[in-house]
Design brief:
The structure is a single chain. The chain folds into two domains: 190 residues, Glycogen Phosphorylase B (Rossmann fold); 167 residues, Rossmann fold (3-Layer(aba) Sandwich). Helix 8 packs across helix 13. Helix 6 links the parallel strand 6 and strand 7. The chain is α/β, with parallel strands linked by helices. It contains 14 helices and 13 strands.
């Protein structure tokens, strides 16, 4: 006879771009999401397939997670591995698609398993139709969707045609034990030549096809900031194809002695990089949420972010930091100068984005998505 307790348990199939062994905001979200999902009493078995694993996996997997890396190594191998595994065992109660680019295969798997499909949408990648006509067509037919911000939820629903009522907002979280206040690391200060400097910081990828983080906007106001703060410097932490263009711009503006490019920052050094800053500045135009803002605030750094994208939700509409118009240099200047006058401290309200609060929200989102799907 079947155990009644086992009969109520849920098996969930999750497709992600990357998580464990990954790097960046979406990778961080996926790790947090998988951990919280596995802690739900009705979801003891979660099987996740990452599309990429760029770095050695050094973290422990949460109990109940089967992290299948056999599909890493190209799109064909990924699809083939999941298809073979599904033919062997398609007993899943829910399929979660961690990125809209993976939606075609996730939709097919949900049909094979005869179960609901939930799509996660993050930011600018889901604000407008993608390059995949098939993914665009399928988007409106998912059972439910999870968005990292109200803005992303609204923008996705507008173009996809999906019923907005099928959406659940699940903001990012921050590990308050890993990111916490501390002194400026003297070794890093010496590495970058930032001793005795007032440091602005932005951390993020530098892809040539996405120039929305606000690097250009901060560089452009630096000459005027320098007139008021002679020792000011700007640390750009991250790497990508757009670095060469930005370096050229810095030289053309005569700012080579004020702008430092660190290259990619290892996860183990992220907190120390945040602590180098006197203000974290990201006047972006296409941020879905901005987990880096949470990490900087957790390190006690005053933050400046955009009022035009999902960053305003990370700052809780200005409660946790300065919101500026990224299209207005005067407003960016105002926000930076005001942030530099603030003391280094962790806002009490940041607990709203703690791991404990996040787990509760994931559990509720899981219940809501199942209810919407019925």
């Amino acid at each position: 006879m079947q155990n009644p307790e086992k009969a109520t348990r849920t098996r969930i199939l999750v497709l992600v771009t990357d998580a464990f062994g990954g790097h960046g905001g979406i990778s961080r979200f996926n790790k947090d999401f998988l951990g919280a999902l596995c802690s739900h009493p009705k979801a003891p078995k979660v099987v996740a397939y990452p599309r990429l694993v760029k770095f050695p996996i050094t973290e422990s997997f949460p109990p109940g997670l089967d992290y299948e890396v056999r599909g890493v190594g190209g799109r064909l191998r990924y699809v083939r591995t999941i298809a073979i595994d599904m033919l062997r065992d398609r007993r899943f109660d829910l399929v979660v698609c961690g990125h809209i680019h993976l939606l075609p295969i996730a939709w097919l798997l949900s049909k094979l398993a005869k179960c609901p499909l939930v799509l996660i949408v993050h930011g600018i990648d889901a604000w407008t139709p993608t390059r995949s006509r098939l993914a665009n067509r399928l988007a409106r037919y998912v059972s439910a969707f999870i968005a990292v911000s109200e803005l992303t939820s609204k923008r996705f629903a507008e173009w996809s045609g999906i019923d907005p009522a099928k959406g659940v907002v699940l903001p990012n979280c921050v590990d308050l034990s890993a990111f916490r206040p501390g002194p400026k690391n003297t070794e890093l200060l010496a590495r970058y030549g930032l001793e005795d400097r007032t440091v602005l910081l932005t951390l993020g990828r530098l892809p040539s096809f996405e120039r929305h983080k606000g690097f250009d906007e901060v560089i452009e106001v630096l000459p005027r900031l320098a007139k008021e703060i002679p020792n000011i410097a700007y640390l750009i932490a991250g790497d990508g194809e757009d670095r060469m263009r930005l370096e050229g711009k810095v030289k053309s503006l005569g700012l080579a002695d004020r702008v430092v490019f660190s290259g990619m920052v290892a996860e183990s050094e992220k907190a120390d990089h945040y602590r180098l800053a006197d203000a974290y500045v990201m006047p972006s135009r296409g941020e879905g949420f901005g987990i880096v803002l949470l990490e900087a605030m957790a390190c006690g750094i005053p933050v400046v972010a955009s009022k035009l994208d999902g960053s305003r939700e990370a700052l809780r509409e200005g409660l946790l930091g300065e919101l500026v118009d990224p299209l207005d240099p005067e407003d960016i200047m105002r926000g930076i100068l005001k942030a530099l006058q603030k003391p280094r401290r962790v806002p009490e309200e940041l607990d709203y984005f703690s791991h404990a609060s996040y787990r509760q929200r994931v559990h509720q989102a899981f219940e809501d998505c199942l209810a919407i799907s019925r």
